[in-house]
């Protein structure tokens, strides 16, 4: 039984797809299929139900998945602790980032960190906050950047960004000339929001319900620039964090303050009672120092 076999098997099981696993691992799909077939022959059981496009674990697969996950976590911890014997931190940090937050706030932070610690590399997983928190909690990721709320009993949570949500409308929209609007004025509008695994999605729906209506969501995406393009083509309205709105502003798009305020906070999280490598500890401290006072 090889470590690569277990890695490939775990990724296919998590993604329920050979194609997605191939993309995430940057390994050819035939190679992944061959390795998992070899693993199945070695253990003497079929581990995956391949009868549909949505791959599922068999009973034997569930056992191997659980045990293999724990085994790989132990191997990663061994590597982390051995790396900590060096005076200069090095190693790989497995980090979860929502796509919008990563592209907007982290490129310069990462560049500055790499100048200080060229021996530290990153393995990024881009997902919504709910998925990132789940994978940090399960030990797949060392650290994550999320939009709260998350389980305070399970995680260390350090807020790093505080903003508010604002409204984006087309220049010809009925509200375009107002500097502020009441949220209830948006009843009946076509909304374009981040997809459901983004915390902001649920927060906006909750805020709308609190003022008496459920938003008519016509489109969901993980990409703010796609949402911006749809607003620019007058297909609907969107509610996005202030910094994203500023970047989305154009002659075709107007930014409007919304009342009551909808807060948007970004935090860095890691699991309590879990060993953090020196590389990860340095990264957490660096991130907190870089975002100190950010508003």
Automatic annotation (TrEMBL):
<dbReference type="Pfam" id="PF00126">
    <property type="entry name" value="HTH_1"/>
</dbReference>
<comment type="similarity">
    <text>Belongs to the LysR transcriptional regulatory family.</text>
</comment>
<dbReference type="InterPro" id="IPR005119">
    <property type="entry name" value="LysR_subst-bd"/>
</dbReference>
<dbReference type="InterPro" id="IPR050950">
    <property type="entry name" value="HTH-type_LysR_regulators"/>
</dbReference>
<dbReference type="Pfam" id="PF03466">
    <property type="entry name" value="LysR_substrate"/>
</dbReference>
<feature type="domain" description="HTH lysR-type">
    <location>
        <begin position="1"/>
        <end position="58"/>
    </location>
</feature>
<dbReference type="InterPro" id="IPR036390">
    <property type="entry name" value="WH_DNA-bd_sf"/>
</dbReference>
<keyword id="KW-0804">Transcription</keyword>
<keyword id="KW-0805">Transcription regulation</keyword>
<protein>
    <submittedName>
        <fullName>LysR family transcriptional regulator</fullName>
    </submittedName>
</protein>
<dbReference type="InterPro" id="IPR000847">
    <property type="entry name" value="LysR_HTH_N"/>
</dbReference>
<keyword id="KW-0238">DNA-binding</keyword>
<dbReference type="InterPro" id="IPR036388">
    <property type="entry name" value="WH-like_DNA-bd_sf"/>
</dbReference>
